[in-house]
Amino acid sequence: MNALYLAFAYMRYHWGRSLVLTLVAALILFVPIATQILLSTSERSLVARGDATPLLLGSRGSQLDLTMAALYFSDERPDPIPMSEVETVWDSGLGVPIPVHSAFSSSGFRIVGTTLDYFDFRELSPSDGRGLSVLGDAVIGADVAKQLSKGVGDTLVSSPENLFDLDGVYPLEMPIVGVLAPTNSPDDQAIFVDIKTAWVIQGIGHGHKDVVTATQVAEGTAALSNAAVVQYQRITEDNIDSFHFHGSQDSFPTSAVIVVPNDTRSGTILKGRYLDSEIPAQLIEPAGVIQGLVDRIFRIKSLLDAVTTIIAIAALAAIGLAV
After folding, report:
1. Which phi and psi (to 5°) does residue 277 adopt?
2. Contact of 138 with 176, CB cutoff 8 Å
3. Which of 48, 112, 135, 226 is most buried, by the most CB atoms less than 10 A from its CB?
4. Nearest of 49, 36, 35 to residue 290 by alpha carbon
């Protein structure tokens, strides 16, 4: 009891020194524990997303860029792949292809053009509003709604990726028709539209409206414009029927294609069809790519652990000297 009394009296008298020693000891314990928790959480999140995606089809090139763009909607821009590859998978009868077009953004969040199969595949459902049903509709993730303070009835405007390359790319105003329930995944930070809406943003599809009517010209209320048509920047009930696409849909682009094989055998057959390096498309397993990324991260973690250990030894020596 006397020893405890003396220790408590010492701490009261030297409260400043005692506080510093306590904080230093807490930091020595907190830093490695917090690092382990942060890295473990990141690893589980990364690996889970990869494991949940069986196969990924895209243009031949960096597998990591393709995976990050299609699964995490990052800023990487892999070469687009034509929609004819989607039809090829459909025609094979070996799996379900889900295109993912992630070339554009709005208010700092990635616009993801896809099909309704994506929502079933990721088990996404709106907590407010409804899903995609009309060209131009947008459904936003939970984080998008929270950070932008937007909800059903509000609008978003697409942003061009390059301010110096606006040819054919027109900002599109998109009404928000639904807000997705939180999933603690990259889907929370995405703006989902139909892939045809993404093509409209890209300038592949557009609507037309007459600049002036013949009656207006005859009455002198309007001058005849050199251009016969102007392009809409918003899709409404009045102009949606005028929207159309130029060219064959098979040539239209998508960033990647998630492929969900019917079974293990179907997946093996599909992978075998893309083994030839001369084929411009590649079919990869995202889980393996993500695992490689995680392994590199944990090599850095080993170095971080060594630095933390050295600092901890030095700090403990200083505390021992002070005590």
Report:
1. -70, -15
2. yes
3. 112
4. 49
Give the CA radius of gyration of the chain.
28
Distance CA 78, CA 68 (A): 10
Contacts of 272 (CB under 8 A, 6+ apart): none
- Tell me which of 41 and 180 has the higher pLDDT: 180
Residue with tokens 């010492």: 10
Question: Count of CB atoms within 10 A of residue 297's CB?
Answer: 13
Measured between alpha carbons, how far is 260 from 104 in angstroms, rounded to an integer?
Answer: 25
What is the model's pLDDT at position 21?
75
The span from the CA of 11 to the CA of 81, in Å, is 69
What is Dmax (Cα atoms) for the chain? Answer: 108
Q: Which of 136-140, 211-215, 267-271, 275-279 has the lowest mean pLDDT?
A: 211-215
- pLDDT by residue (tens digit) across 216-255? 434 544 444 444 444 447 888 888 888 878 788 889 999 9
| pLDDT at res. 268 | 94
Structure tokens at 316: 């403990």
What is the torsional sign of CA 57, 61, 66, 67? positive
Distance CA 262, CA 304 (A): 43
pTM for the structure as a whole: 0.77
Q: CA–CA separation, 7 vs 24, rounded Å?
A: 19
Beta bridge partners of residue 101, listed in sequence order? 113
Task: Write out pLDDT tens, residues 250-280.
Answer: 899 999 999 999 999 999 999 999 998 888 9
Torsion over CA: 157, 161, 165, 169 (sign):
negative
3-class DSSP state of 112: strand
pLDDT of residue 223: 42
Which distant-in-sequence residues (6+ apart) come within 8 Å of 144 by Cβ?
107, 109, 150, 188, 189, 190, 191
What single-letter amino acid sits at 323?
V
